[in-house]
Amino acid sequence: MKLTDLRVAVLGLGLMGSFHTELLTSRIRGVQVTVVNDFVQAKAEEVAARIGARVVADPIEAIKDPEVDAVLLATPGNTHAEQVNACLDAGKPVLCEKPLTTDVDSAYAIVAKEAALGKQLIQVGFMRRFDAEYAALRELIVDGGLGNPLMVHCTHRNPAVPPHFNSEFMIRDSVVHEVDVARFLLGEEIASVQVIKGVATSTAPEGTNDPMLVIFEMTSGRIVTDEIYVRTGVAYEVRTEVVGESGSALIGLDQNLQVKSTDGRWGGRITPGFVERFGQAYAVELQRWVDAAGQGTIDGPGAWDGYAAVAVCEAGVQALTVDGKVEVQLQTRPEAAR
Fold first, then answer.
1. Which residues form a coiled coil (predicted)?
2. Which domains are delineated in the chain?
């Protein structure tokens, strides 16, 4: 470890936390994971022994540890409010996996608290912003390459999910990515959400609407559609198309090797999971966060973006039981959060 390395605590060592820890210790420059924490003590001890870190059993104490400069949160969403607030109290940059918190009031309170500090310390883990295709699509829109963007069409499909992935969970854990994509690409807020529920797949639990069509209306009146289907049994497929006055652009087509054979067949392999599709985006996200955190700040979506996503998802959950649009309720954005 170099004296100039950023010392990071990773809280939560499940799927995402373990993935982030692996990236931080194998691919990211200028960083050392010095402290780990997990609800399962044996898991924390196993990871700590492998990477040369210490286990701190209490997550708040891990955040306050003097050998920690910045924090990566991959803990359950219902713990984020307390833990993000602890990072603000300690003055330490934090990369918080979504959601920022699980309710709009606590999320906005964090926005206001950070704004009062006068510096940005909170980055939210919307990794698609760091994907080369999404970044190029955003640049194309900003540069006017499609003319005025009129509509955005998103597709989000998973091969399988755990049984607890009900309709509400689909909104909060999956659709939330398209929430941020819409705001990122179009540079405006989402004004309302509507959910259209059709015939559910036979593999969905009773009462779960899978697939669904989620429709966002932006403040400008632009329309964004999102097909969410998380039990396809096929592969991990994420695509986004922007339709403008002067053309359209589509990203997320399968970039793997395609083969044409002499018997007239052709085909390839669709990405089986999120790591294969967005692994490089996660690496870019972490490297940029580490570089920024070393300067005491962030480089990516911030607390307001996290709050806006929570507010839109809350409207989306309400829309599951309401015919028609549900308006998104956003409080005033503090000047320091702009």
1. none
2. 6-126+280-302 (3.40.50.720), 129-275+309-337 (3.30.360.10)
